[in-house]
Amino acid sequence: EMRADFIANASHELRTPLAALSGFIETLQGSARDDTAARLRFLPIMQAQATRMARLIDDLLSLSRIELNAHLRPDKQVDLVAIMRQVADSLQTLARDRGVEISVKAAADRLLVLGDRDELMRVFENLIENALKYAASGKRIDIALSIGEGSKSAREASVRVRDYGPGIAPEHLPRLTERFYRVDVTESRAQGGTGLGLALVKHILNRHGGRLTIESTAGQGATFTAHLPVAGPAENTNLPASTSG
Ligand code: ADP
After folding, report:
1. 194 C-beta closer than 6 A to ligand 1
2. pTM higher than the cut 0.85
3. Span 104-131, mean pLDDT?
4. How far apart are CA 136 and CA 22, in angstroms?
């Protein structure tokens, strides 16, 4: 049943931009054939719709790839601090455009986990991009990386992304990582969302033996935390951070 639902949802999500594109093509071939103004107005919209379809297909393919590898734990040692700094740097321009300041604080110089670098980049990108999309009004995003005791008393790394935007009402929290679930579909579409971002985040973290937790109070921002098992106590220097900010 879930599978049928998913296919129905995915088809619907793809059909919406496709219908818009077909409509514009028809208009440009028909009534607006010689209308330069209409053409200049329609082409960017058509491009945006095509981009949206491409993004959706990319996300669907990523999800299915991650699912195929779900039972394989990544075995390369990667440094979460370096990955996060790279992701945060790559989003600085977008953050500046939206008037948001991103701060990254790490409790150690390095935080090593067994992971897939590209997938973990995707996790951090999605969380920061969401904060930029839905919580820019809060003007800042605080990112904190730390190491501590996890739920099963094993050591775990936590990567916290906190924003000061509108937050999320409690009834939505348990459903946010469902595929295509959005608090506000219109807003998500306007921001170029696919509704698959947090589903991807959840699946990637599961594959790493980790998990995602979400805390929020409406009106007071939201905190998304990725928890990951650490590679092993010996490898983690746990030195006080020499750089921050
Ligand atoms: P989307 O592609 O719609 O952004 P996601 O799976 O990434 O899909 O997120 C699902 C929904 O969760 C979003 O549509 C939005 O309603 C909500 N959301 C995610 N992050 C935040 C945030 N930082 N603040 C408020 N709402 C958020």
Report:
1. yes
2. yes
3. 97
4. 34
209-244 tens-digit pLDDT: 999 999 999 899 999 999 999 976 555 555 554 444
User: Could you tell me where the beta strands, DSSP code E, fall in the chain?
Assistant: 77-79, 101-106, 112-114, 140-149, 155-163, 211-216, 222-229
Distance of CA 86 to the CA centre of its chain: 15
Whole-number Å distance between alpha carbons of 148 and 168: 27
Q: Is 173 in the pocket of ligand 1 (CB under 6 A)?
A: no
Q: Which of 176, 191, 220, 225 most suits a substitution to test ligand 1, by most atoms within 8 Å of the C-beta?
A: 176
**Which residue's CA lies nearest to atom 23 of ligand 1?**
131
Q: What average pLDDT does range 195-201 have in this prediction?
A: 97
- Residue 32 has a CB neighbour count (10 Å cut-off) of 16
Tell me 233's DSSP state: T
Ligand 1 atom 10: residue of nearest CA: 182
75 in Cβ contact with 114 (< 8 Å): yes
Q: What gap in Å lies between CA 67 and CA 77, rounded to an integer?
A: 21
Give residue 235 CA to ligand 1 midpoint distance, Å.
Answer: 35
| 180 close to 172: Cβ distance less than 8 angstroms | no
| Ligand 1 binding pocket includes 168 (Cβ within 6 Å) | yes
Q: List the one residue out of 143, 189, 142 whose CA is nearest residue 164.
A: 142
Amino acid at 98: R
User: Is the Cβ atom of 131 under 6 angstroms away from ligand 1?
Assistant: yes
- Cα(169) to ligand 1 centroid in Å equals 12
| Residue 194 neighbours by CB distance under 10 Å | 22
